[in-house]
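Page 42, continued from yesterday. The earlier attempt failed because a stray header line got pasted into the input along with the sequence. Redoing it now with the clean sequence only.
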Amino acid sequence: MGNMMKGSRVFMLLLVIIMVVLSMEEGVKLAKAAGPSAAQCKEERRLGINACKPVVYGKLPTPECCERVRVTHIECVCTVVTPKLAALIDVNRAIRLVEGCGRRVPRHFKCGSITTP
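This time it went through. Structure tokens are written below.
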């Protein structure tokens, strides 16, 4: 059962990461002069995971989850999206969830190992 819980945590982290990545508007510039620190990025990811846990279990995003999707910096998530993590995500479901939060999902947006359709 330990491996199942670990797998669920990885899936949850990936789902939240993908939701955040897909929520960014087209034309976002990744190279900002004063981006968030590593500690700030870690905190943003932690907040997003906690706010969006119910999504992993098939529920719709809460207002708190949608807020996290809108405010998390893209540069905080792209570096952790590896091919192994990307393989576990249903990108089309993630897009529907993000759009449900009122955000447009850019076409052909690349972040880490994910490219939106």
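Notes: Residues 23-32 have pLDDT under 50 and may be disordered.
Reminder to self: strip header lines before submitting.
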